[in-house]
Input
Amino acid sequence: MKRIRHIFEALGLLIALGVLRLLTPEAASNLGSFICRTLGPRIGVSERARRNLRLAMPELTEERIAEIVLGMWDNLGRTFAEYPHLGRIADPKSGRVVYQGMEPVKALGKPGSAAILCSAHIANWEVLPVAAAHQGIDMTGIVREPNNPLVRAIIDRMRGVAGGARIPKGEAGAKQSIKVLRGGRVLALLFDQKLNRGLAIPFFGIDAMTTAAPAQLALRFSCPLVLVRIERTGAARFRLTVQEALTLPDSGDKKRDTEQVMRQMNAILEDWIRARPEQWLWLHRRWPAEAYRAAELKRATLGR
Output
């Protein structure tokens, strides 16, 4: 039964992607936006996004929260619909991606230049690896692979349209990450999801379990740790800003240094999200259950 389900899921995905591929990148993006803006806010998982927003930014009105959730679905629909066009979107000749601060990073593509690039589930996060490949950066990305192996193969082909390599999240991926950096190559990962075995680092003023991998690897290999911000500026159009490499502490206390780096990264990510809250993926259960309960109790007490 599982194999049959996998086959139907893959066929459905191929049909959807085939239709989207017939459109221009902009038209595909707009179609994805229309579908998800229409359906997304009505499905149950949207309540998780609303709870996250109430917890992270309690100053928001319910009207503003509804606008952000609608914008989130708009962005998600566009992100999916842009999959078959990733190569065209990131192609420098298309002008669809505007780069800021990219010149110093091009040196990372040279042999022996180990570095870590970090971003988050903001705008279309799949643009980064394809854009890096177009810029000549030999980058290996850590990705979450779909459970369906047939779907996995389809997605992997689109992610690798311009080159680059991908390794799965998890223990096996962690070992491969070390090999990538030891080999003097560039590693890329998204650091904004909850990790139960991570560190409790403040995020919107509330401790959230956060991956320590970026800091631990950067400190271990003494390599640049660079944050890359992706912003959606329109249908199939983006601004990609490469920030200056973080200054890594060297107190001799690895745990304290790791926490300091991750605090800095979470603070930067929070600034990105506050600037464009509708472009972040608010569907993660990012904070501990007790934080949600406390926030809801406070809201009930205030009669909001």
